[in-house]
Design a protein that fits this description.
278 residues, alpha+beta, four-stranded antiparallel beta sheet, 11 strands, elongated, DNA-binding
DNA sequence: GTCCATGTTCTTTA
DNA sequence: CTAAAGAACATGGA
């Protein structure tokens, strides 16, 4: 469920409880959820203090005193929630970190029914992660260079984490709407002012989404268990058939690289493709 | 039973 | 060789 704004919101709500706290215990309820296989996570984590928690793209990086790091990825259905000590884990709670600070303690429950997420011990491993630049800080020039390198549909580019990292299906569609760009437009054709507009649109959409605690389309909640509200402000995502908030035209849905893709056929004009199907 | 789902990665095809 | 399309992963809700 989590794209950049949701992951950032989880981090924001996790930090006040976890940073500065000491890990008193962990529980691994689903060993295959932890990587690398067979690592003794308890030996690395118990007794350590959490120095900081940051987001990189859609990933959560927990840094410990001494510089070791733990990566937590939420996949499609992952959540990390703060629970009272002794809270009974749900069926799909795979990993629990017990923390305490100033005499008060809490548990961080990582729950993930589909198990597309996971927990990876990085230790002192370097920062190389194969991810593209962060969309909140990318420059228009940088974005334009990335787009110029390929003729793949612009939507496919925005979802390619190696090129730009953090957007998912919701925010790719929402950003393209704000920029007035059709999702099938070849990436290399988005240049100059249109590339700059897309860059601004991406940042505006992500910032507003973070301000609204992310989008809860299905079951996303932050570390406090609260839903986001940005889904109410979606212009296109999950609105197929509904009227465009800008022009009233029916929002259209197509499938692109296997993903549901929504856009306004009037506000986002289709590219003129020179090729056609035989 | 069927289809679809906020993500990533491996395999197959062109 | 590269790029793009497809399948797979595991579960639950409509």
């Amino acid at each position: 469920m989590p794209e950049l704004p949701e992951v950032q919101t989880v981090v924001n709500t996790l930090v006040p409880v976890a940073v500065g706290a000491t890990i008193s215990a962990i529980a691994i309820r689903k060993p295959v959820y932890i990587e690398p296989a067979n690592i003794d996570l308890a030996a690395h984590l118990v007794g350590r203090q959490i120095a900081s928690i940051h987001r990189r793209a859609k990933r959560i990086l927990v840094s410990l005193d001494g510089g070791d790091r733990l990566l937590m990825h939420l996949g499609m259905t992952g959540r990390i929630t703060v629970e009272a000590p002794g809270t009974a884990p749900l069926r799909h709670t795979h990993f629990i970190i017990s923390v305490s600070r100033n005499g008060s303690s809490a548990e961080l429950h990582m729950h993930d029914p589909r198990r597309f997420g996971g927990v990876t011990w990085l230790g002192q491993a370097s920062g190389e992660d194969g991810l593209g630049p962060e969309p909140l800080t990318i420059t228009a020039k940088q974005l334009e260079a990335i787009l110029a390198a390929t003729d793949r549909p612009i939507k496919a580019l925005l979802l390619d984490q190696a090129r730009i990292a953090g957007l998912g299906n919701i925010y790719a569609d929402e950003s393209l709407f704000v920029a007035g760009i059709h999702p099938l437009t070849p990436a290399s054709r988005v240049r100059g002012e249109r590339a700059a507009a897309l860059c601004r649109a991406i940042k505006q959409v992500l910032r507003r989404a973070i301000q609204h605690g992310g989008s809860t389309v299905r079951n996303y909640v932050d570390a406090r268990g609260s839903k986001g509200s940005f889904q109410k402000l979606h212009n296109v995502y999950d609105r197929a058939g509904e009227p465009c908030r800008a022009c009233g035209a029916a929002i259209q849905r197509i499938v692109l690289i296997g993903r549901s893709t929504c856009f306004c056929p009037r506000c986002q004009r289709p590219p003129r493709l020179k090729t056609h199907r035989a």
